[in-house]
Design brief:
heterodimer; A: alpha/beta; Ubiquitin-like (UB roll); Alpha-Beta Plaits; six-stranded mixed beta barrel; about 30% helix; B: alpha/beta; Glutaredoxin; six-stranded mixed sheet; four-stranded mixed sheet; about 15% strand
């Protein structure tokens, strides 16, 4: 063995030898050894590629000691072995000072009144290089550029712009929106939005990446997020989607000033979306519920907590005595923390004594949990989001992540924009589909048909991974026979996707080293939702795409804590940690742990609860943080069910459509006002920290539950998130090593071993269930179509927009409504033409359940025959028409396929004033 | 700049170039038509801002230029000749003054009075016939310049016929590319664009890359005012250039060759558009051993931006991005056009390949000096008694060029500006020490560059000339790096103030500015401007001293 040649790994920084890594730039190298402030920069940013425009990072480099020195920009010059780098020579100091002096000749010198005074990178660098005055006479400049205050959030004042391009690059390299560029050239180069429009007129998606990237106040926001120095900055986790962005919240005098995305966050690396960054003002909206209320004589009256607890306890006890515990049910919320979900299911199971506990995952990812459990043994994402970096092919099926999961969506879009193999299976030409290499634009409800065809071609083309199938799976032979027996003609016809397109996508998926799949509610919210999830698992198994980096099956979780809610046992058939409630051993385990008798029979799912209520079986329902009336299908039925109850307790932050039917209102704290943990879509348990005190008399959901449990005679310790987390760690095996203090800022991905080690990739050596299971189920047309197609020839599918979150309870109470203020119906121009419908006309959309009027938006993003809309706004109650069909396995409603007919609306005014409660 | 936009543009490739689509948005009425730009943005998925941002970069697409009907040359040669004010005056008799624009160098430096009208260039006495031009009764007015040579005269010699050129090409396609590369390596041919980088090394760099696509790009956008050698080769020796490209493609494994030609040379563009056809018809070529060789030539019309002569800016321009200079590494040989391995070569360099491969590398190597092999084209301006285009063997004394080929000067001059706007300012007493080769110029603190020779008459104030150089740089700066973007303007302003009187430039500030440009600039534009400025300060202290304190 030869001795390593030292000169190949050593270079000298200011004459001190330092080891460098291959491919490292001088800037990276110096910062690693001498600290992040060792070289000043202006155009460099933590999440952007080296750009080389400001030249402030220049250093001197000599090939030998005392040799001639050349000036190099350190950000894009690679370290060469044995070279001598001088970062602070007199010549370099002078050069930096001279560059900054030039910058200041075209920059307003009004620091003292500037919003970022004291927190401005230009100011810092100017101070550091020691600028005292600008020696140039006044010349041409751009100090008279006008401010852009058009947008609800983003602002710009280009008189402050130093043209470092950081905003342009952030919009491009981070968000991938390409809204910003530079127009003109040379000295007159100018940052432009679109065709040099305002932020509001441009295609900006308000993510704020540009504002965060800007080193001055040239691009900022209405919260002046960068201006905050010396305030309290509290790190927490976003409450919106399942991406789980880390947020840094600036607080002053108990009030939130602004939110930024921390650069060091593993989940979001300094990025987030407009919901996470800007849509926080709901927390102090005047409509927040501030005190408990009880309905008396039809009116909700303010009462004390003491009174409300007594009232509920008495009511529940009476109902339990009279009708038994199964006449009571609880609905928990994936918007709440793990600790609160755990307590909710414990309350229902241990205190009430029923397994009638379910949560909003029922209407979103319950089929994922069941489907993946059946295939792999674990109902959770197999991989981590960072694996996108290592994937060669990405398949996105039934998901629109650029709207629904913006930060992950941006990463996927970056992947697709670079021309890497991307397959999108979706009835709509989503943002991602535009950039994808393959878009299989199927008819809603035919996922299985398309996936069957893909599997067929993979087998036919001999692209199966035989070693993996043999060693790690079972049931392949029978599965293969079934697949080879499918009728391609039929499947091609029902799905509407030409077989050659499917074949090309199948080959693309199966031919790469690492193919990663993502799916969303376009998979689960179907009659065959669970089977589709299993089919996606089959696709991964047959190609050996499980248990490695850059592959796997990865559900995009809709809500911030869908994963955690299921983990905590919020389903009628499994308790905390997914143990089967009907299994005597597990029942005994729970009984011992909770210290009371626990029922052994499966309870009701949410759809079953409605039926039970309508049948008079269910008498009391406690809903924590979910707006069933607005977000569940078949609204009229939901309302009837709620009206049939003797007691409806709603624990909420706002008077939602559901809360209007409540007998008791319990005001809850928002995520900004409490502690706990959320588990994101990649199984990452992250700490939520209290930022401000709850409004009025509102309490954390966990505290309400713990107090209620005690009021009903169960000795639950006074609520602390840490205390409940300790309890969870004792019963949920994959939480065994989770400790409040050790979660830190980045959290841990479960399973967390008792020693605290966490897990980025599941099923590496073995599946949870031993071997993965192949399972074939043939395509079946949805009963909705079979029953109603004749009279209702169009298919309406539902989706989300970026600006609003689900029922809009929070986002509608923020300036997001100034950007998007209504639900729209996407309709293909051909269909619109056939019905004489023009852009922005009201369209009457009628299903077998009812009808609603929605404003038309003509778009070729949907195929003829397919319509799409959102249900963010209660004014429309789109769910009045959605279907009563549910996934055959998980009971998840089929929001995605509704047979409808359309016509231009006649009675707009009347129907808009419907449903006054 | 943007990897994303580059990839999105690459999806449409060279046959549906985003760059060409930008030009479609130009409209005389609307400047840049938003509807067209929006369509392009949608089709390429690159966002409105990227289309608008790229289009507004170019002189010929700039909305403010859209009403211009006639463009007067503002290049250094025409300025030094002093012909343009009168030309402007003449044109004002025929055009609304607001419709008269400017353009930097039409390559008519030997007879001046140059202007661009209706897609063609005119010079010399052409303005006298402007009425006929406008009426359309005359469409072309030929310019005239001497072409001469001293020594071997490889490029100016009677060139082989098209038939012969194609025949030679086909013969060479039967040989081993390795062997052809070796021949070029032996020849010692160095790039004629200024940097003098050996062609063989550049080609070997592209050859060794493992990529599905590679490109040969001919940089015919080196718009150094004062140089017209590229124009000569494109218009008169197109086959030699195309031959060179095809051979470079064969050697390096590139299947596409792109000529990016200055819009200021409209005649060259139409000549090349025709000239590539017979070459493209050869391909795809099946060798006797059955191998298939593919090569397709594309002519791309530039849109008026000097910075596109910088190779990375040129590549970004071809991709339809804003032509801002890229950082290196990666170098174009690994990450060039559409992110693929690319050899970008100067016109004259490519034109030399024919001589090397027909006469042998050794023969070529024997011409010129030890380190600068071959010949060099020179552009002599109208101050010479015999202005025109000359070819000399490398190593020929500058004095021979000036006195013998140029035939001396028509009026007293004080310095030559050699090698383009970023070349050195050579005082008369230095002439005797210089020979036409890379080493001689570099060792004396000058730059051979494109070897254009501009004469600065004694009567012409040097301060005004420096201001012209700063103004040129300010006009052509891409705006990416801080020193060049701001420094070029501040330099121009300081000189303007000094020239206007009652203002002396602080010498320390001035030296700081020059130092900042030289050391801090990202590319040779801002980084090169200090050379002539420093020469001027060094050699003409008496004339310039009064303007500084």
């Amino acid at each position: 063995m030869s001795l390593p040649n030292l000169t190949t790994t050593i270079a000298f920084i200011n004459d001190k030898p330092c080891a460098f890594e291959t491919g490292e730039t001088i800037l990276q190298f110096t910062r690693r050894h001498w600290g992040k402030d060792s070289i000043p920069t202006l155009c460099d940013a933590p999440n952007l590629e080296a750009f080389g425009s400001c030249r402030v990072c220049s250093v001197e480099v000599a090939l030998e000691k005392d040799g001639p020195r050349r000036t190099k920009a350190s950000c894009h010059t690679l370290v060469e072995p044995g070279t001598f780098i001088y970062t602070e020579s007199a010549a370099i100091q002078k050069l930096r000072k001279n560059i900054i002096e030039l910058v200041l000749t075209d920059h307003p010198l009004d620091c003292l009144t500037c919003e970022v005074n004291g927190n401005c990178e230009l100011q810092d660098v100017a101070a550091r290089v020691g600028i005292r005055k600008v020696r140039y006479p006044v010349g041409e400049n751009h100090l008279d550029r006008e401010k852009d205050l058009s947008h609800p959030y983003l602002t710009s004042d280009l008189s402050k712009c130093i043209l470092c391009f950081r905003c342009v690059r952030a919009c491009d390299e981070v968000q991938g929106q390409l809204v910003l560029s530079v127009a003109g050239r040379g000295f007159d180069s100018k940052i432009v939005k679109g065709f040099d429009q305002s932020f509001f007129e441009s295609d900006c998606v308000s993510c704020g990446a540009c504002a965060q990237a800007c080193p001055t106040s040239a691009i900022s926001d209405v919260y002046q997020s960068k201006a905050l120095v010396g305030q309290d900055k509290i790190r927490t986790v976003c409450t919106y989607c399942g991406v789980g962005c880390n947020l840094e919240v600036s607080v002053k005098n108990g009030s939130i000033l602004s939110i930024q995305a921390p650069w060091d966050a593993e989940v979001n690396q300094g990025h987030t979306c407009l919901k996470g960054r800007y849509a926080f003002s709901f927390y102090k909206h005047p409509e927040r519920l501030q005190y408990p209320m009880i309905r008396r004589n039809g009116q909700l009256e303010r009462v004390s907590w003491n009174e409300v607890y007594d009232f509920i306890a008495a009511k529940l006890s009476t109902i339990r005595t009279e009708y038994g515990p199964n006449a009571i049910a609880g609905i928990s919320s994936s918007r709440c923390t793990n600790e609160e979900n755990y307590l909710m299911q414990k309350f229902i199971r241990a205190v009430i004594g029923t397994n009638n506990i379910d949560g909003c995952a029922r209407v979103c990812h319950s089929p994922t949990a069941i489907g993946m459990q059946r295939a792999f043994g674990t109902g959770a994402a197999t991989n981590s989001i960072e694996d996108i970096k290592f994937a060669d092919c990405i398949m996105v099926i039934g998901a629109n992540p650029t709207e629904g999961h913006p930060v992950t969506g941006a990463k996927l879009k970056q992947f697709a924009m670079k021309g890497k193999t991307t397959i999108v299976i979706d009835p709509r030409r989503t943002e991602l589909a535009k950039y994808a290499t393959h878009h299989l634009q199927l008819r809603p409800g035919t996922n299985i048909a398309v996936l069957d065809m893909m599997l067929y071609y993979i087998i036919k083309e001999g692209l199966t991974k035989k070693d993996f199938i043999e060693a790690r799976t079972e049931g392949f032979e029978a599965f293969k026979d079934s697949i080879l027996n499918i009728n391609l003609d039929d499947l091609e016809a029902v799905s509407g996707v030409p077989r050659e397109q499917v074949r090309a996508a199948a080959i693309a998926y199966a031919s790469t080293n690492a193919a990663m799949s993502f799916h969303g509610l376009g998979v689960t919210e179907h009659y065959q939702g669970t089977f589709t999830v299993m089919q996606i698992a089959n696709l991964a198994m047959i190609t050996g795409n499980v248990g490695r980096r850059g592959c796997g099956v990865n559900p995009l979780r809709g809500q911030n804590n869908v994963q955690g809610m299921a983990d905590m046992g919020v389903q009628p058939y499994q308790g905390a940690g997914y143990f089967d409630v009907t299994h005597p051993d597990y029942n005994r385990m729970y009984e011992e742990f909770y210290g009371v008798n626990i029922p052994i029979e499966i309870g009701l799912t949410i759809p079953q609860m409605y039926n039970a209520a309508l049948d008079g079986q269910l008498k009391a329902l406690w809903i924590m943080g979910e707006d069933l009336v607005q977000s569940d299908p078949n609204t009229s039925k939901v309302i009837k069910a709620l009206e049939s109850l003797d007691l409806l307790v709603v624990q909420e932050i706002f008077m939602t459509e559901t809360a209007r039917y409540a007998d008791v209102i319990l005001p809850a704290a928002s995520f900004l006002e409490k502690e706990g943990t959320f588990t994101n879509g990649e199984r990452r348990i992250q700490r939520v920290n209290k930022v401000v005190e709850p409004v009025g008399e509102a309490k954390a959901d966990g505290q309400i539950l713990a107090e209620m449990m005690n009021r009903m005679g169960y000795a639950q310790a006074p609520y602390t998130a840490k205390g409940v987390l300790e309890e969870i760690a004792q019963i949920v095996p994959f939480f065994a090593g989770v400790k409040w203090e050790e979660l830190g800022t980045q959290g841990k991905q479960w399973p967390v071993a008792p020693d605290g080690a966490d897990t980025k990739i599941l099923h590496v050596d073995a599946f949870k269930r031993g071997k993965a299971q192949f399972f074939f189920r043939e395509y079946i047309e949805s009963p909705e179509i079979l029953s109603f197609q004749q009279d209702y020839p169009y298919i309406l599918t539902t989706n989300r927009v970026l600006e609003h979150y689900n029922a809009g309870t929070m986002t509608r109470r923020t300036p997001n409504v100034d950007i998007v203020h209504e639900d729209l119906l996407l309709i293909h121009p051909e269909d619109a033409g056939r019905h004489n419908i023009a852009e922005a006309d009201w369209v009457c959309v009628e299903s077998a359940r009812g009808k609603v009027d929605i404003k038309a938006h003509l778009s070729d993003a949907v195929k003829p025959g397919v319509l799409s809309t959102t249900f963010h706004f209660p004014e429309l109650l789109v769910n009045l028409i959605t279907s009563d069909v549910h996934d055959s396995e998980a009971n998840c409603p089929e929001f995605k396929v509704v047979a409808v007919r359309i016509r231009r609306a006649r009675r707009v005014a009347e129907r808009q004033t419907r449903l006054v409660v | 700049m943007s990897e994303n936009v580059r990839n999105l543009s690459a999806r449409h490739g060279l046959d549906n170039r985003l760059f060409d689509r930008l030009a479609e948005a130009r409209s005389e009425e609307k400047g840049l038509d938003q509807e067209v730009m929006h369509q392009v943005a949608d089709e390429y998925l690159i966002g409105n801002a990227n289309v608008y941002g790229a289009a507004t970069f170019y002189d010929f697409l700039n909305p403010e230029q859209s009403n211009k009907k006639v463009f007067v040359c503002a290049g250094s040669a025409c300025m030094l000749a002093g012909t343009q004010p009168a030309l402007h005056h003449t044109l004002e008799q025929h055009f609304d003054p607001s419709t008269i624009g400017e353009v930097y160098c039409l390559g008519r430096c030997y007879e001046n009075h140059a202007f661009h009208y209706h897609g063609l260039n005119y010079s010399g006495q052409a303005a006298a016939q402007i009425t006929e031009l406008k009426a359309g009764s005359i469409t072309t007015i030929a310019d005239q310049y001497t072409v001469g040579s001293l020594g071997k005269g490889l490029l100016t010699a009677l060139h082989p016929s098209l038939e012969q050129t194609l025949k030679t090409l086909i013969q060479l396609l039967e040989s081993d590319p390795e062997q052809l590369l070796e021949e070029i390596s032996i020849s010692g041919l160095r790039g004629r664009g200024g940097a003098g980088f050996p062609l063989a090394i550049k080609l070997a760099g592209v050859k060794k890359e493992n990529a599905d696509e590679k490109y040969i790009v001919c940089n015919a956008d080196e718009g150094d005012p004062g140089a017209f050698s590229d124009r000569y080769l494109l218009e008169q020796k197109a086959h030699l250039v195309l031959f060179g490209m095809a051979i470079c493609g064969y050697i390096s494994g590139a299947q596409d060759g792109v000529l990016y030609i200055r819009a200021e040379y409209p005649e060259a563009i139409s000549i090349l558009q025709k000239a590539i056809e017979p070459f493209n018809r050869i391909f795809s070529y099946q060798k006797r051993n059955g191998d298939i060789v593919n090569f397709k030539l594309h002519v791309v019309k530039a849109q008026g931006a000097y910075i596109c002569g910088e190779e990375t800016a040129l590549l970004s321009s071809l991709e339809g991005l804003r032509p801002e200079v890229r950082t290196r590494p990666p170098f174009p040989s690994q990450y060039g056009l559409f992110g693929k391995p690319t050899a970008v070569n100067n016109v004259e360099t490519l034109a030399n390949v024919y001589a090397i491969l027909s006469d042998g590398g050794t023969t070529f190597k024997a011409i010129g000096t030890a380190k600068s092999a071959g010949t060099k084209l020179l552009s002599l301006d109208s101050h010479f008694n015999n202005p025109g285009l000359y070819e000399v063997d490398m190593g020929t004394p500058l004095s021979v060029v000036i006195n013998e080929l140029g035939g001396g000067l028509k009026e007293p001059i004080k310095a030559f500006h050699i090698g383009g706007p970023l070349g050195g300012l050579v005082p008369l007493h230095k002439i005797a020490e210089l020979t036409i080769d890379f080493e001689s110029f570099a060792s004396q603190g000058f730059l051979l560059g494109h070897a254009s020779i501009l004469s600065i008459p004694t009567r012409f104030p040097l301060l005004e000339y420096l201001e012209h150089l700063f103004a040129f740089t300010a006009h052509e700066s891409c705006g990416k790096c801080f020193p060049c973007r701001i420094g070029s303007v501040r330099g121009k302003e300081l000189l303007q103030k000094a020239r206007a009187g009652n203002y002396q430039i602080d010498r320390e500030l001035w030296d700081d500015l020059i130092d900042t440009l030289e050391k801090g600039s990202l590319c040779a534009l801002g980084g090169g401007l200090p050379l002539p400025v420093k020469n001027a300060m060094q050699y003409f202290p008496a004339e310039l001293g009064a303007y500084f304190k």
